[in-house]
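Troubleshooting entry. The earlier prediction with pyridoxal-5'-phosphate gave an output that would not parse, so I re-checked the input for stray whitespace and re-submitted. Clean input:
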Amino acid sequence: MNDTQQEPWLIRRDLDFLNHGSFGATPRCVIENQRHWQNQLEEDPIEFLAPERSLLPKLDFVRQTVAQELNASPRDIAFVRNATEGVNAVVRSLPLRAGDEVLVTNHGYNACINAVAQAANSAGATVVTANIPFPIQSPDEIVRAIEHSISPKTTWMLIDHVTSPTGIVLPVAELIELAHSNNIRVMVDGAHAPGMLPLNLNELNPDYYTANHHKWWCGPKVSGFLYVDEKSQGEVLPSIISHGANTEGYGPSKFQCQFNWPGTFDPSPLLALPTAIDFLASLYPTDDPNRLAGLMRHNHDLAVAGRRVILDKLKLPEPVPESMLGSLATIPIPAWTNHTSAQIQALRTALRTEHRFELPVFRLDAANVCLRISAQTYNSLDQYERLADAVTKLS
Ligand SMILES: Cc1ncc(COP(=O)(O)O)c(C=O)c1O
């Protein structure tokens, strides 16, 4: 075995990969575990895949693992392919009526907002966008922006736990309380949260929460979960209607029965998730009941330190307080503000081909062209130092 084969991560070494946030990255041992499941499946496909034979107990084992990490009941958790599917399942099941308002934010994820817009349009409801400022100084600005956008017609809202373009950790506990005190049901798009932030869904008490396993839990692509509070489970249907709609025995409740079988599928990404979480937990052992607390702290500290290196080198103020970040950070680069799309594309190409970086560079709004850094355990501070030098050259 050469050196590369012993590396725990498969990320290529000739690249500074600072974009864990987009699709995650999966450790070697997890991919091996996924292949093990795929081999078992192919050795005896019917025995392995038929829900009434050996699949359901395997899914339930993963569900237990997920529930434990989320501090939630396994009863309230279904599996989906990804957060986009989780949001789709909920919004397409909502009993929206003409005249209702549904609330999203300007830092929301485009695919999910599209799903909300589609559901609202077909019901004759309106999508209202709350404007979260950027740069930002405190979580209160977020609460105020959302409060300001609530009206007596608001029935439902979608908020992100960690915003994709800006890496801001929203004050979800406060926002859920605010929604509930206004009789609004709230869905949290937590795509980035598991593995980045401690989660306690029992305490948070959202109506719906969805997230990816393949981002910061580093599971294989593609898998995620959808949590639905017990009182709403009766009305949430999966995006794919399959046998569970009229077949018993695919799960202990109608909710899980419907989600457990989306038609023939490859369950290996799901089944390899416990190995991914065990691997991450083994990197930074801790006495904390949250076994990923050490990893989360490490990644947060690295993101903050990496951002600091770039801000100092470019003499920029911090756009978001450190306390509002997880392990993603977005930095607006003033020298790029007036760049055209072609110039922004040229920056991406130069960063990738000349400087060997992988990270998003994008226009956030009229005032901000930004880059977004991620910090995962395979990253190191010298990568952000090199990035600061490259950005200086490109500014
Ligand atoms: C906040 C947020 N929601 C949803 C998604 C969609 O994830 P997926 O494409 O895996 O469904 C992303 C992806 O980056 C995201 O950042």
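This one parsed fine. Residues 33-275 form a domain with the Aspartate Aminotransferase; domain 2 fold (CATH 3.40.640.10).
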